[in-house]
Each structure stands twice: as structure tokens, then as C-alpha cells.
Amino acid sequence: METAKNHFFSDMSVMLGRSMRHILRSMDTIITVCIMPIAFMLLFVYVFGGAIQTGTDNYVNYLLPGILLIAIASGISYTAYRLFLDKQRGIIERFHSMPIARSAVLWGHVLTSVVSNAISVVVIILAALIMGFRSSAGVLSWLAVAGILILFTLALTWIAAIAGLSAKSVEGASAFSYPIIFLPFISSAFVPTESMPSIVRAFAENQPVTSIVEAIRALLSGQPLGNDIWIAIVWCVGITIVAYLFAMRAYKKQVR
């Protein structure tokens, strides 16, 4: 059993290294993921920020959690794209003809998504600092923020895996991410939900992005967390489990 586990982890590290080399050779992937969220941040802070009432003097502090989620939602589309290419080119079948753990190929893509999105998040936070973002959060609060973002990334990455393994075209593999990118706009990421019409407000307050945004915002500002952090964790873990089961089902169809 121990040998099998070591075999899996060593194979997974090789697959992770392979995927990361592809990204490092094409840094435009990370740059592209960062550009749109930073552009949104610039637009909302310097163009719309003065007209939006959030109850805070520093709008970039209010805005940043939602921007980070948009960045992650944009980044996971590349996971679906890379998986689709591996499937289309027969690379998955080639790896499975070798004496390696079969699931290591898929896990390599998943971990690559976590690492690459983490890099994008750091770049965006640095940009926010230049724009005036300030946080009173301690080390534990920052670690909690990192944990929530990793859970969110895993949840979306497993959804991306389903799309990449099931899509019939490159466009189909990445198109799934558009509704996910749009979700933060119908949440408390940019404006308080109290300002929304009743039907929109009901949706905004009961979708996962709002609880995740509120939990991150409270952690970064040193405010009481309430139930938001637990709701956020339940959403992320629940989506991860369901998406993982469907992704593994789709993956097993590729390895028969």
C-alpha cells in the first residue's frame, strides 16, 4: 500500500511539473488571467467607485475579494483547455500506456490550476496595494483567506475538468467559465445586496459567491465573521465533492 501511494505521488509530481513547464513557457496565460480582473478593478475604483455607496471610504478594500474570485474563475478555463488538448491529441492515452498511476494525469492538471491561480492572485493583490488596498488582517486571517481561495479554486477546477473531458471543441471546453465569471456581478462583490431589486437580491444573497466574498472581506478587514465563513466552506467543499465525482466519471470514460 505504501509503495502504491509513493508511486502515485511521484507520478503526480511529474505531471504537475509537465503542466507547470507549459505555463512557464507561455506566461501569457497568467498575464491574460490577471489583466481582466485588474482592468475591472481600475474601472470600478477610478470610474464607478465615487458613485457606489458601500459604507466604506476605501472602495478597493471592498472590491478586492470579488476581483480575486473573478481572476480564479477566468484562470480555470485554461485547465479545461489544456485537458481538452491532452484528450484530443491522444496524450492521455499515451500516458496510460505507461506504468504510471492513471489518476496522476488528472491530478497534475488540478494542482497546476491551484499553483497558477495562486500566482495570479498574488499579482492582483500587489496591484491592489498600489491602488491603496490596506488590510489589518493578521497572519492567521491571511492563511484563512488563502484556504478559502484554494477551496474555491479546487471547486471550480473540478468543474473545469468535467468541461475539458466532455467537450467536443476547444470553444466548448472554455465556454463554461463565462457564467461563473458573471456570478460575482450578481453578488455583494461590487455593491451591497440591499441596493438590488428583491428578486435579484434573493438570488445574490443565496448564491455561493456572496458568502465567499463576505467571509474574505471580513477576514481582511478584521470584522466579525458570523456564519459566512462556514457557509462559504460548505459551498466550496460541496461543489468540490460533486464536481470531483462527475469529473472522475468522465475521466474513466477516457481511460477505458
Automatic annotation (TrEMBL):
Q: Chief location of this protein?
A: membrane
Single annotated GO MF: ABC-type transporter activity
Q: Which residues form a coiled coil?
A: none
Chain ranges of the ABC transmembrane type-2 domain? 28-254
InterPro entries, A to Z = ABC2_TM, ABC2_TM_bact-type, ABC_2_transport, Nod_factor_ABC_transporter
GO cellular component assignments: ATP-binding cassette (ABC) transporter complex
Tell whether Transmembrane helix is among the UniProt keywords. yes
How is this protein positioned relative to the membrane? Multi-pass membrane protein
UniProt keywords (A-Z) are:
Cell membrane, Membrane, Transmembrane, Transmembrane helix, Transport
Q: Superkingdom, according to UniProt? A: Bacteria
Q: Which residues cross the membrane?
A: 30-50, 62-84, 105-133, 139-163, 175-193, 229-247
Does the UniProt entry include the keyword Flavoprotein?
no
Compartments in which it is found? Cell membrane; Membrane
Q: Return the PANTHER family for the record.
A: NODULATION PROTEIN J
Protein family per UniProt: Belongs to the ABC-2 integral membrane protein family.
- Name of this protein: Transport permease protein
**The organism's lineage?**
Bacteria, Bacillati, Bacillota, Bacilli, Bacillales
